[in-house]
Amino acid sequence: MKKRILYLVLCLIFVTSLFAACSTKSSDVSKDSTSSVETSNKSISKSETKDFSGRTLEVMLDKGGGGSFYEPIIKRLQELYPGLKVNYWYDLNGNEVFRTRVLANNAPDIFNLNQGLFSYYSAIEEGLCLPLNDILELPTMDNTQKLKDIIDLNLMKQKGYIDGKYYMFPDLLFTAGLWYDAKLLRDNNIKVPTTWDEFMDAAAKLKGKGIYAIGYCGTMAHEYPLSYWFYPMVCSVDYETYVGIQNCDPSAWKSEGMKEVVRRMEELRDKGYYDASTVALGNSETQMQFIARKFAFLPCGSWLEAEMGDAWPDDFELTYLPFSGKKDSSGSDYVLTSSLASSVSSTTKNIDIVGEFYRVFFSDKTAIEGQIKVHQNGMAIKGFGENYGHLLNKSTEQVWKAIDQGVKGFASLANTWYPEYPKQAGNAINALMTGSINGDEFMDRMEALFQSIKDDPNIVKYKFGS
Length: 466
Description:
Mean pLDDT: 87
Helix content: 40-55%
Largest sheet: 10 strands, mixed
Distance between the termini: 35 Å
CATH architecture of the largest domain: 3-Layer(aba) Sandwich
């Protein structure tokens, strides 16, 4: 409690300087330079005259794998409603800036933040997020249906669905797993692995060519190796162990399935198949090492091709590996399916404009096509593949084809429910892969962490289904 009070005091002290820094990162795409006019909190009504002249909508996006995908939405919104001003900005420290603005009673109307650093569930419990049920009742742009009829509500229920209320919109859907350069394997006569033994055979041959088998972004170990490599492998080895992790069961870290996963990680490390230099690299630097073919397999999301833009060599054949660690052909491979999500501030004075934002977001064809062309990922719209799949890049298409062919999707929620956990897990994975700790110490550390979470009465516990 003392630390929290101190944190709040420091935030208040530095609020002015943070606002100044944030303003340099803000982007005003308004066609109208009229200053914002504060209005009362309006109710959502499909019959309301939509004249937003002289008003300002504030949108905050923690720019990451989705790129600037909000821009086509905002552009379309302003085309439809001339005179509306939209202030939107990107900030990699968005979670900190958001909290500071909350303290100053100046929260953005809409915010999309990194779920590895920002706990939406804590924000919901604190009353910072507005229930979205009323927005779902709004008509689509062609007035033929309601938003709730065209949005996949099952996907919405994966995150931020509490006591019958929706608090988080899945803005885009991404998948994550291992990626490789098909040309690299082909040129070195290496078979694309489909079982763990084949993966280790490929790793041995790659080492003989002076190439590491795998590397990952160590400075974001709470996300990249944990969610995109470790989790899929746990699922393939023993899915019940994965369910135990999501349910914060300390014993999951000492299960036979976990022991096998840890044994594999130690084997990769001890045989020199892991590029330990990547533990100190950021996301872009790690991906540039991958592009330079320093290592062959990269844990990442389906945004990879779009995110690296023009950095790809002409002869690089980026390919999704539909393998996560199954022992033999009788097992299953898994791919993480998740979303970048947005919420609405409970203090917004622009709920009517917010409603129009999401109507355009999910039901305006121009806006939908515009954002897909930027982020190159799926959306929680029914019939998405049939209607918009042709807009995806080749590598993303491969993932959805693999899912159609039997690769199983899985969701991860423990990272969001228990925000301290992924940070500690990422640190432990880094320590294990660099040899700072051994497998037993890794499992002991994670078991103790989960026991402390389980025993803490101040931490809300959630139930994960299969």
